[in-house]
Design a protein that fits this description.
By secondary structure, the protein is an all-alpha fold. Helices cover about 75% and strands about 5% of the residues.
Length: about 350
């Protein structure tokens, strides 16, 4: 705190001492304690210190190697998916368009969190600036919320493909697909903007020790000096909007999908129709299960260790498994990948 501010604080206490009779009888050390408390409370937090892996100091180098390999593999698999979809004309369909957008989103999603976490695993001082924390939270929320609405758009795509196959091309044209992605991004941007503004408009004057490995909502809110119930309610309602509404849309789509599949006379036809939805269902279950546990449970049940474990799963492991789920279960994609690899190796041969 600047010297002029300290003098103002001393002068303020001096006036209170003589103007308020109740302070004449306070002990000498109480006034010093009041000065100290006010000085600390007026100190603005300029950076946050991550403590998520501080209890695993001896394992941090091992964790660095494991997370780095997972991250590189995730980047590689997503790059292969995007390149295969772009290069193979047979995959220029709405389903694969959404899959390429999903892979791109997950690549950006991990890029926001994982590189900083890898650096912190090797650094002695694991800090992030106040502005950097706000930017990380906004970008993470923007991509995560867009991801939720994108999964709902993919559920609608599967509904149209199975329930209205003859009108699929007309209902899911290129303009409609782009509009659905744009709407998902717009909703994600709006929610991220509101939540980030609500969180970082709060005063942060006390601790800067963040019991997490990135700037998530609950750990940062826990460090705020005070926050109103209204801001907490708004953040919770936005969480409901991002998670519950897309999930309800997905459930409605799949109720109609299952109803249509059961009307297919042959078991082979039913299996083929349902297999096109299985990958999407697995990704939806993992995404909404982890996100609901983190953001929709009561704050009284908050546990930093549990949150760290779940966050590792959906920031590192889920982006690793999603491309594998979509590619390994899809014969059409695997044949397109083999074709693309043969075409790429032809100039060499």
């Amino acid at each position: 705190m600047p010297a002029t501010c300290k003098l103002c604080t001393v002068f303020h206490l001096f006036l209170l001492f003589f103007l308020d009779p109740g302070l004449h009888f306070c002990p000498r050390f109480s006034c010093i304690e009041m000065l100290f408390v006010q000085t600390v409370n007026e100190t603005m937090v300029r950076e946050f210190v991550f403590l998520a892996f501080s209890s695993l100091a001896s394992l941090q180098r091992l964790l660095f190697v494991i997370f780095l390999l997972i991250y590189l593999f995730t980047l590689g698999t997503n790059a292969i998916i995007i390149a295969t979809i772009v290069l193979d004309g047979a995959l220029h369909t709405p389903m694969y368009f959404f899959l390429s957008v999903l892979s791109c989103s997950e690549t950006c999603y991990t890029f926001v969190i994982v590189p900083k976490m890898l650096v912190d695993l090797l650094a002695e001082k694991k800090t992030i600036s106040f502005l950097g924390c706000a930017i990380q939270m906004f970008t993470f929320l923007f991509l995560g919320c867009s991801h939720s609405f994108l999964l709902a758009a993919m559920g609608y795509d599967r509904y149209v493909a199975i329930c209205n196959p003859l009108r699929y091309t007309a209902l899911m044209g290129g303009g409609v697909c782009v509009a659905l992605v744009a709407a998902a991004c717009a909703c994600g941007f709006m929610v991220a903007q509101i939540i980030t503004s609500l969180v970082f408009d709060l005063p942060f004057h006390s601790s800067n020790l963040l019991h997490h490995f990135f700037c998530d909502i609950s750990p940062v809110l826990k460090l705020a000096t005070h926050h109103s119930h209204l801001s907490q309610l708004v953040i919770f309602m936005l969480g409901v909007f991002v998670l519950i509404i897309p999930l309800l849309l997905i459930l409605i789509s799949y109720v109609r999908i299952i109803s249509a599949i059961l009307k297919i006379p042959s078991s082979v036809g039913r299996y083929k129709a349902f297999s096109t939805c299985a990958s999407h269902l697995i990704v939806v279950t993992v995404h909404y299960g982890c996100a609901s546990f983190i953001y929709l449970r009561p704050k009284t049940n908050y546990s930093s260790s549990q949150d760290t474990l779940i966050s590792v799963s959906y920031t590192i492991l889920t982006p690793l498994f999603n491309p594998m789920i979509y590619s390994l279960r899809n014969k059409e994609f695997k044949s397109a990948l083999q074709k693309t690899m043969r075409q790429a190796s032809c100039p060499i041969n």
